[in-house]
Design brief:
single chain; 382 residues; alpha+beta; 6-stranded antiparallel sheet; 3-stranded antiparallel sheet; 15 strands; globular
Amino acid sequence: MEIDWPISLLDLEPFYSEIESLLEISGTYGFQPYPASQRGLLISNAMRELGITPKSVPLAIRPPKTTNGCIECSSCNHLVCPTNAKANILAKSVLDDSAFPGSISVLYGCFVNSIELRSDCHAEALECYVPLSSQRIRIPVKAVIVCANAIQSAALMLRSKSRHAPTGIGNDSDLVGRGLSFKISGYSVGYVKNPAALPAHWGPHATVYTDDFYEHPGVPCRFGGLIYEANLDSPGENIGRVRLHYIAGEEPWSHNRVMLDSAIDPHGIPYIRIAYKNSENDRARISFLANRAEDTLRRLGASCIERMPFSRGKGSSHLHGTMRAGSFPKTSVVDHCGKIHGLTNIYVMDGSVMNFAGNSHPTHTIMANAKRMALSLAEKEN
């Protein structure tokens, strides 16, 4: 069966390149690779002995001993970088709006409840609610661009029912909210006999990974994912331990979906309800990756290995689907530029347009695709 996906790698490549250059991704565009950590070296050696190819993680962090490089002040993952060695959208000028005239107003605490449509399928206003003041406001619009993630973007469209959109905006084919896709993932931890041989870890969360099992004949469905070093958040927690993370995009089934509940919150807004479960293929794929990760831990000399309980049944981060892009209204919600089929001025430009979660971190793909879509809209407006 032909897959309805209208965006090619060639479409995205210029925007990938621009974003990765702006973020100074290590090991790309002349930027130095980030050196492997002490644990990363052990993992790399063990993988090579098993015939697995280790690679340096492309990080948005300047390496140590470079200008404004990492000072390895913590075991860094979710923490703010005090020296700006780790990229962020402000430090790296990713939000360049110089090509867009006008100003931006930010309305804090303003919740968009629904989009008002005219009879000609044109959005004319947003109906909003401000919980702190219990005020309802109506904001006239020229166009609506939604970037609210795969759950909230779909929920907004489903709440926007009217006589012009009786089942919600873009939902004529009952596709809005369907195909919710997370990552399936898990962790295995190996303990070494002599904890002093592996002291506390200071530096990035990960420096080494392998994508040998991204596509591999031994993986169920032949489509696996990544295995990579995953240091614990506190430096001291890593003493005597090596932890590996394995991750893959799950199958995008239509029964995994976002819906509106019949119950409403104190402000009269329907609660969001999610139907979600993993497939047998997903469970088999993540188990295969877990076994390969534990082979690596045994090879590097771990005397005791613990597989942390899978939490995949609750989903995870990296949300995708629910507003899938495609060429045909019967099989998708938005077109290749993010415009909702059949409407003139409502666009979605976030991870919800991606039909599959992918097997790696999606941030750069979401950023590249959003910029491509935004520039397409700007060219159309001009």
